[in-house]
Amino acid sequence: MRYALYPGCAAKGATPELYQSTMAIIGRLGIEVAELTASSCCGAGVVTEADPEGALALNARTFAQAERLGLDIMTICGTCQGVMSSANRQLKGDAALLQRVNRLLEPEGLTYHGNVQVKHLLWIVVREVGLAKLKDEVQVTLGDLKIAPFYGCYILRPSWDLGFDDPENPTSLEKVIRAVGAEPVDYGGKIKCCGFPIILEKEDIALAMNGANLKEAKDGGADAMVTPCPLCHMSLDIYQERAAKKVETNLNLPVLHLPQMLGLAMGVPSRELGVERHLVPVDRIVKVVEERKSKVTHSPLSHGPLHLRSNGQPRRGKGEGAS
Amino acid sequence: MRLAFTVQRYSPESDSAPHDETYRLDVTRGMTVLDALIRIKNEQDGRLTFRYSCRSAICGSCAMTINDAEKLACRTSVRKEWERYGGITIEPLRHLPVLKDLAVDMRSFWGKVRAIEPWIQAAHLPPTGPLSLPAGSAQFHNVDACIMCGACVAACTVHEVDQGFLGPAALAKAYRFVADPREDSAARTARLEVLQGPTGMWDCTRCNFCVEVCPKDVKPMEAIIRLRRAAIQAGMTDTGGARHVVGFRDLIARFGRLNEALMPLKVVGLSLRRLLHVLPLGVRMLLKGKVPNPLHPPIEGVQHVRALLERTRR
User: Fold this and answer.
1) What is this model's ipTM?
2) What residues make up the domain containing B30?
3) C-alpha–C-alpha distance, residues A36 and A110, integer Å
4) Interface of B with A in 226-245 (CB under 8 A)
5) For a designed S-S bond to A120, which of A81, B40, B96, B164 qualifies (C-beta 3.0 to 4.6 A apart)?
6) CATH class belonging to A2-120
């Protein structure tokens, strides 16, 4: 499985731990990547507000770069995914538009022919890596932990641009949470908005939205939250303390990037996942994982990797046949 | 097949809070949720209250919350809902006052549509009224297909926390007049001035709920984006929202990627008060290694990105 990795701005900027944790886990899932180092911002739904054709051209340029490599694109940001899915659908569906945009790419010697697909890491894990393979890679099940999925808007809506999850009743994050042995928290806020796009200019509104979703997850018993979107992560993590004040509650809910959750379950050392960069400490979750990991390592039954299932019963892993 | 329908009931004269009631009904092929409600009312409970008229997705009366999403009852298939959710729950539209059962008070909705003055404004109209649209001139992008059902407003995540927000339906309607070539430029400017104010176009987070739930493909959020574009093009760039858009594009032209260290400064503008508000979080991010180097080199080929954005800027 080989993809052109489109890192997006946040993973190269304010959420470097997303890039770090992605690189720490994809090899174990059999995903190889060639990074699109010359790719620009996708426009994040913002550039189009001033300049729709410019925003499309930025994305066509990225698609052309991947097409030249003969690879589909893997995104690690829900917002990038939504914006790029929409741009790709417009470009593929309108030959005249594609031609116009290609003229803008000409000076760089690039042309987009419409042969690239754009897929989020979450989708690749669910549909291409497969949950069975993911379960095989789980070294420490996150059993007893309740994890609240938070999808973010752009990976769900408009559903006809994305074509993956049911926008009213999505299941992909829940499937992944179950695959790592944890229990997904069901709550209405999981498909709502984190408020991030207006958080700098309309902080009151954004915090009310953000706080309500976090509170609902917490009231549902969540020990942690997981999101496939780093912009949601900034809102949920960096602004959590302010959001808690806004909704007059105590939150202290650690928020994981999707690959961080996968990495913890796959036994990747937490420092390689960058969890120490979060503003809301992830210590509690890391501690649970570390304790279980040491039990796994020191188990007298252990020869070959052992897996602790959520029911507490050890199960021999892939090493079984060899031993 | 006999299915259960869970319907939220509420009568202000007798109930202190809403409660659920379950009705069982033999469903027939092709039955809609509205068909089911009418049968329940006729055969089981004449007091059950809901609005409807045309039964064909034209009048916009029967929008309600069906399995937690805003839908017109008349074009929602019982069978599909059952297959998707394994049950059917029916509630009134969210974040609007309930009058009785599934009927909500739409006065705030209509108030906002009226507030945007949904008629053509021009200083020099002929005495017989507005002229016809010049041929081929108008691009309303389907916003005039709106049937005012209220689904988008009930689904709007900003309206949920701030009921003062003008909301997707009224803003989409406003765009229709901003795009109308018969309005003169003074009227258009005046409109945009009002719409760029608090509770207006810049409050939308682009969550896309309105686009997803609209039964008529109006795409209200895209109309809001067009309003924002019109405001920027008219030179109205002294709002946080407009500074965000213009500053964002400038940063992409400069670096190829967004630089989150500089973005807040673009939005804050020249206000010391706003700067002092964002600064503490910036410091905490810095200590956690979350502030990118503002002098970070641009991406490879940034000159092409810059040239491309120059050309599309016009």
Assistant:
1) 0.95
2) 2-104
3) 14
4) 228-229, 232, 239-241, 243-245
5) A81
6) mainly alpha
For the segment B161-176, what is each residue's pLDDT rounded down to a tens digit?
999 999 999 999 999 9
User: C-alpha angle with apex B78: B76 to B83, nearest 5 degrees?
Assistant: 110
Q: Any chain A CB within 8 A of the CB of B80?
A: no
The answer to whether B50 and B104 are in contact (CB under 8 A) is no
Helix locations, B21-67, DSSP H: 33-43
C-alpha A87/C-alpha A64 separation (Å) is 13
Minimal C-alpha gap between A7 and chain B (Å) = 11
Count of CB pairs separated by less than 8 Å, A with B: 182
Q: Give the CATH number for residue B209.
A: 1.10.1060.10
B72, B139: one domain = no
Nearest Cα residue to A279 out of B286, B293, B267: B286
Nearest-5° Cα angle at A267, A261 to A270: 65
In chain B, which among 134-173 make CB contacts under 8 A with chain A?
A: 157-158, 160-162, 165
With an 8 Å Cβ cutoff, is A187 touching chain B? no
Q: Do B260 and A13 touch (CB under 8 A)?
A: yes
Nearest to B252 among A40, A107, A201 (CB): A40
Torsion of CA A103, A107, A108, A110, to 10 degrees: 30
Proportion of chain A in helix, strand, coil states, percent, rounded to 5: 55, 10, 35
pLDDT(A315) > 60: no
Rounded to an integer, what distance in angstroms lies between the CA atom of residue B43 and that of residue B61?
Answer: 22
CATH architecture under which domain A131-298 falls: 3-Layer(aba) Sandwich (3.40)
* Contact flag A198-B157 (C-beta cutoff 8 Å): no
Contact list, B268 vs chain A (CB under 8 Å): 200
Query: Which A positions 119-178 lie with beta carbon below 8 A of chain B?
Result: 153-154, 156-159, 166-169
pLDDT in tens, B53-88: 999 999 999 999 999 999 999 999 999 999 999 999
- Does the distance separating the beta carbons of B257 and A38 come in below 8 Å? no
